[in-house]
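Sat 14:20. Reprocessing the chain from the morning session after the first attempt stalled halfway. Input below, unchanged.
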Amino acid sequence: MSLHFPPSLQRGQRVAIVSTARKIMAEELTHAQNILNDWGVEITLGESIASDFHQFAGDDELRRRDFQRQLDDPNVHAILCARGGYGTARIVDELDFSRFAQQPKWIAGFSDITVLNCHLLRLGYASIHGVMAVLFGQAGGEMAVESLRRALFGEVINYQAPAMPHNRFGTATGELVGGNLSLLHTLTGTPSQVSFVGRILFLEDLDEYLYHIDRMMLHLHRSGQLAGLAGLVVGHFSLMRDNAVPFGATAYDVIDRYAQLYDFPVAYGFPIGHEAENGAVVVGRVVRLTVTDSGSSLADAVDVGAGKL
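Finished this time. Tokens:
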């Protein structure tokens, strides 16, 4: 299946902000609206913004309807997810992408939005794993917002990370796939699961027990999902938790245990995940991963060396 890339966003076009998961108030999007105005785009706030159903941004039907409306609207050229939390997997199977296929548009988010990143890739469309609208005003998050702008407007983004003890040297080229480890684990065996074979997998997670990280990595290994990887990129594993009796390993130690069973290059410490420095990446784009004793880089394979952040 050939992969389709939506056209780059242009000034004057319309961007919709919706929430497919946790509830959010419109005033929490002030920074995002100001920045999007500076980018020269129009803004539509979806019905899910300021809607409230327990912890969700409206019940499942409202969130589905809102997202579907933005998918189908020919005047909306990109959809930014307002925040993560939990809930996207509850509506994804009811979405109809037939009109979207006639006019693809960029869909951006991370964390719970890994569901959409993977589902779209399964359907043959690229999307953006990047900062969500609620975090546009986060202290230290300027790089995250700028990298999202670059991704939306079709500019090249390359990342570099320092040398890390667990790195495995090597070079790999392949389509980028991945996101939140907990969501990738949850998608196993569903219509949203994607193959990692021949691709460069990136991982991140937040607020998990260390033994949960081990359990999920073990599942990816035992289910054969790590076999055939071209390379592995490991981002932020933030606010990890431990039991009263310590698990005895960090998140990076846990991942390394399973990565050592294979021979692909592995790079740790990339600015991707639940930290202020959350660089946007295009899921489905062919990238080149290079890991040496001086550090690692993740670069667009077509134009290596330009637009570094």
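The chain has two domains: 14-152, 159-300.
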